[in-house]
Amino acid sequence: MVAQAAELIRYRSLVTNLVAKDLKVRYKASVLGFFWSLLNPLLMMLVFTFVFTQLLGDAVPDFPVFVLIGLLSWNWTAASVGAGHKALVDNAPLINKVYFPRMLLPISVVASNMANYLLALPVVLLFMGIYRLEFTPWLLYLPVVILVQATFLTGLVLILSALHIYFRDTTVLVDVGLTAWFFMTPIFYRVEDVVDPTLVERMYWLNPMASIVAELHTILYYGGVPDPLFMARTFVTALAFLVIGYAFFNRVSRHLGEHL
């Protein structure tokens, strides 16, 4: 494991190149380029705001900020899982021609979408200023939450990309799963509005993204004090996903050439 970790570090420049390539390809033929990564969550924010404040009369104050915080984090997750699980199959010609740690392909997908997330994050701060939400020192805790999400997504994408080598139906399951996962994550509703409090606790245990989004809301929307134990529990779950994903990917990658 130490030798493999050292190899990944030696190839870190390849991750940078893969991330840069992904960002260039993504916006190459687009008129607005990177600004689409900002417009997409903003347009979705407007739709959710209209539906939940005008049509349904939702009582969540400063709803645009609330939903935007969750949407940006969710977009990182959905894009990473959607593209990451196909990273090995989509890059089969490259894998068969050049040697490099195969693990870098799904990792680079998570990293490129994290770059998009970080570039879009100032929009949240802008809307916080517009709606006069409080900027607290706990904003400095934000990198910790981002690190937890990056750890979780890396482990999950390693597992899914390895599974996709054997089961190409993974794409269908991912599409359905992302839809269900979206509604099970408190992006456009508050956890305190859930009818059964026991369901909230189960949601936190079974869905790391629920904990991550809740903590983002605590820091950015409520301006409250984050709970270190709450985040530590989520980080342990994320780390477990990373360890399992790492071990499973290594086991599967030994026979990668046979299935590509």
Number of domains: 1
Share of residues in strands: under 5%
Helix content: over 70%
Please give the number of β-strands.
Answer: 0
* Backbone shape: globular
Terminus-to-terminus distance? 25 Å
Average pLDDT confidence is 85
Instruction: State the low-pLDDT regions, or none.
Output: none
Would you tell me the structural class of the helices and strands?
A: mainly alpha
Can you summarize the main beta sheet?
Answer: none
**What's the helix count?**
13
Q: Summarize the helix and strand pattern as letters.
A: HHHHHHHHHHHHH
Gyration radius from CA atoms, angstroms: 19 Å
Question: What are its keywords?
Answer:
260 residues; globular; mainly alpha
Walk me through what this model shows.
The protein has 260 residues and is mostly helical. The chain has one domain. It has helices at residues 2-10, 12-27, 35-55, 63-84, 87-90, 92-97, 104-130, 142-166, 170-183, 197-206, 208-221, 228-253, 256-259. The mean pLDDT is 85.
